[in-house]
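Course assignment 3, question 2. Fill in each field.
Student: A.L.
Task: Predict the tertiary structure for the chain below.
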Amino acid sequence: MEKTSLISSDNRFLKSQRLLTPKAFKTVFDAPERKLHQTHLMAFVRDNEAEHARLGMAITKRKVPTAVMRNTLKRHIRESFRKKNSLLKNKDIVFIVKKPIDSLSKKEINLEINNILKKIKI
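Answer field:
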């Protein structure tokens, strides 16, 4: 049986690229190295011991009331992360929503996500 690698060569979003435990989220929230802001989104960023970037999302019902919109937002964040993962090195990134995103188009949401990911690479 083949051993699966920690980083996908075909740009899939693997379980090893996710923050899974409350302890992992708490580590990033308690001592972020950077906080990156956009109008509606914010990301907490911290170096990790893994050899690849990991993603977490804390998207609340209060800021994004419908499940459809929450899932759409998560899908956009995961897709942008998946495309730029190789450039992000060993970072833990947690996205949160600062303001309700009801009025934003998909293009505006993607622009905010991509702006945050660009700042992380710099």
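Instructor remarks: The first helix runs from residue 22 to 30. The helical segments are 22-30, 67-84, 106-121.
Grade: pending
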